[in-house]
Design a protein that fits this description.
Largest sheet: 9 strands, mixed
Radius of gyration: 18 Å
Shape: globular
CATH class: Alpha Beta
CATH topology: UDP-N-acetylmuramoyl-L-alanine:D-glutamate ligase
CATH architecture: 3-Layer(aba) Sandwich
Order of helices and strands: EEEHEHEEEHEHEHEHHEEEHHH
Number of helices: 10
Number of strands: 13
Structural class: alpha/beta
Length: 322
């Protein structure tokens, strides 16, 4: 796949704009801003899970989305599925697990990098049996979660998705979101993900991700390493400093558009949502990246990953995106 900042990305046809594969969880986020769990006393329930957040946000922006995931057969799983249905997300790919609880993630509310604790359940049982060529063929873009890669069964599931999607010439995106403490067989994590990159069209690592994979290097060196591993478009997020994107032929720096930061939870998911909305509307790549930054700025002003997102037309005007 060739990428160019001045051109739109060529997509296959399909009745579903985006199919995401990965976790759907309940986030319990501290009410008070706290640097650690030691100082966090009160928590509030929020819808969570990066792939699920992206499908919800993108549906809110007027696109058709679907999710392959797994939740428990408990009340929390029912809550998550009902929220997805409310937004119009196709939930036919979500399985209810009879033996495991819905996964819970505790998060500290923070203006920087929040702490988190994972009490995992049904997400660890995501299965290759939930994947079919027919389901993937309906989607224009496939989004993959690094969270799902942390367990052997999840890796098998994602590998099946990649194989089918490559055969169908689908765009594949990966958010590595590397958390070494979650990996079963943690020592293999960085090498496993680096070996995946040759099959990935779009990857969005953070500086922390890049450091885990390639050690301490400059931003430009990180970009080069991802391209050398085979990634097509690399979007290196820089926190408050914005992002650096690279097509392999050229690079583009974009500063953060955030004017107010209340909570960083879900900002990366919002970026994906705005970015996908742009490429699905056949905006050029640079405009899509700016839309992603604008969507992230909107989420940073609110608590929780799932918030009210203005339509893309309003984002274009509000953030003066050409």
């Amino acid at each position: 796949m060739d990428f160019n900042f001045s051109r739109s990305i060529e997509l296959t046809s399909g009745e579903i704009d985006l199919l995401a594969v990965g976790e759907t969880v309940v986030d319990l986020i501290s009410v008070e801003e706290s640097g650690s769990f030691a100082g966090a006393e009160n928590f509030r329930r929020y819808f969570g899970g990066s792939p699920a957040n992206i499908t919800m946000n993108l549906a809110n922006l007027g696109r058709k989305t679907a999710l392959i995931s797994r939740v428990g057969s408990d009340g929390l799983g029912k809550y998550l599925i009902s929220r997805l249905k409310e937004r119009g997300v196709d939930v036919s790919g979500i399985s209810r697990d009879e033996k495991s609880n819905t996964t819970l993630i505790l998060v500290t509310r923070s203006q920087e990098s929040p702490e988190f604790l994972a009490y995992r359940g049904a997400d660890t049982n995501l299965s290759p049996k939930q994947i079919s060529a027919a389901r993937i063929s309906k989607a224009r873009v496939i989004h993959l979660s690094g969270f799902a890669l942390t367990i052997p069964r999840g890796r098998q599931t994602i590998e099946k998705v990649i194989k089918i999607a490559r055969e169908q010439n689908k765009i594949l995106s990966l958010d590595p979101n590397y958390r070494p403490q979650l990996w079963q067989g943690g020592e293999i994590g960085p090498e496993y993900i680096k070996n995946m990159l040759a099959e990935i069209d779009i990857v969005k690592p953070s500086l922390d991700d890049a450091s885990f994979f390639f050690g301490e290097r400059s931003r430009e060196a990180y970009i080069n390493k991802f391209h050398e591993a085979g990634a097509g478009l690399v979007i290196l997020t820089l926190g408050a400093d914005g992002l650096l994107a690279s097509t392999g032929e050229s690079q583009q720096y974009l500063p953060s558009l955030a004017g107010e930061v209340v909570d960083t939870t879900g900002a990366g998911d919002a970026f994906w949502s705005g970015f996908y909305a742009g490429i699905l509307q056949q905006k050029n790549l640079l405009t899509a990246l700016k839309l992603g930054s604008a969507a992230a700025a909107e989420v940073l002003k609110q608590t929780g990953a799932l918030v009210n997102m203005p339509p893309t037309g309003e984002l274009l005007i509000k953030y003066d995106i050409n």
